[in-house]
């Protein structure tokens, strides 16, 4: 075993700077049955650098556990007797404690609870037992009017889909485009539904030229043609960013309607984001102007949003609040980032869960915990969770496809 390499990896791991390959290498080294003996030989250098610390109480507990290792026991028996022996055994207690502390970071032997220094023995599965958690990617499916469907995103090359005299193009940039048909009128146009799973997103261009980016775990229902339409209407569940194309008949503009969880949004040509997660409909206007109204309400009950306005409609209370915000944090997901400005931690974890397709378990209340920051959506999930931990408010543990939130 290359001791200098082991020291190097230990230092990087404790600093949180190990790459995935280095983590795997260190993990493999820690499985070596002779690791305790190597830690003994490395102890002087590590101890002088003060990189390993453990309480005296935990030192004894860990010593009693690891001392049963035949090799370690044999080395201890061969040491000199008397005072020198006692000093050496005390040293061994710290050595084996240090080995266990290293093991904490790799999830091999023990979990040491820092709050009360209580050592709890657990049988842990190795990292290879669990599936690797990857960021989301461009994937979706189109459900056609007859119930059949087409998977999208699996073929990196451009592929054309011919369906009932219109065309959709699954391009290698992760989008699908509809071409206006000369033979289909809006009144009889088939309805399609674009669905993204957890861990997926996709872009679509409708037949009128409107571009829509659909976030993870969302769906968009739309007609395949707008020819002859007096109104353009789509239905959204989840989250999407819209860049609506202007469309006219003669000199008369054709309204574009987005129905989402009881809200009806009307636009003529603009950019905006709609999010229907968490039992609210949140509409953020980027450019242009939109009118927000509600199904079942009087026609004179509506709100006109201006750029940077955000309306939040509480479906349960049937109330709406409008405020000016910085739209950067709303549209960052479309550009490949997570960006939060004093956001509730529960909302942050909700977004992460949808994108990485993981579950979140709370072992503590987080109502008062908020997070601000920006990180790439394609970051390694462990690095992402570490970034959130730097706030000092919570600890996050990834186990398989489950994230546990603790104080």
TrEMBL record:
<dbReference type="Pfam" id="PF04773">
    <property type="entry name" value="FecR"/>
</dbReference>
<keyword id="KW-1133">Transmembrane helix</keyword>
<dbReference type="Pfam" id="PF16344">
    <property type="entry name" value="FecR_C"/>
</dbReference>
<dbReference type="InterPro" id="IPR012373">
    <property type="entry name" value="Ferrdict_sens_TM"/>
</dbReference>
<feature type="domain" description="FecR protein">
    <location>
        <begin position="193"/>
        <end position="291"/>
    </location>
</feature>
<dbReference type="GO" id="GO:0016989">
    <property type="term" value="F:sigma factor antagonist activity"/>
</dbReference>
<protein>
    <recommendedName>
        <fullName>Anti-sigma factor</fullName>
    </recommendedName>
</protein>
<dbReference type="InterPro" id="IPR006860">
    <property type="entry name" value="FecR"/>
</dbReference>
<feature type="domain" description="Protein FecR C-terminal">
    <location>
        <begin position="338"/>
        <end position="405"/>
    </location>
</feature>
<keyword id="KW-0472">Membrane</keyword>
<keyword id="KW-0812">Transmembrane</keyword>
<dbReference type="InterPro" id="IPR032508">
    <property type="entry name" value="FecR_C"/>
</dbReference>
<feature type="transmembrane region" description="Helical">
    <location>
        <begin position="95"/>
        <end position="113"/>
    </location>
</feature>
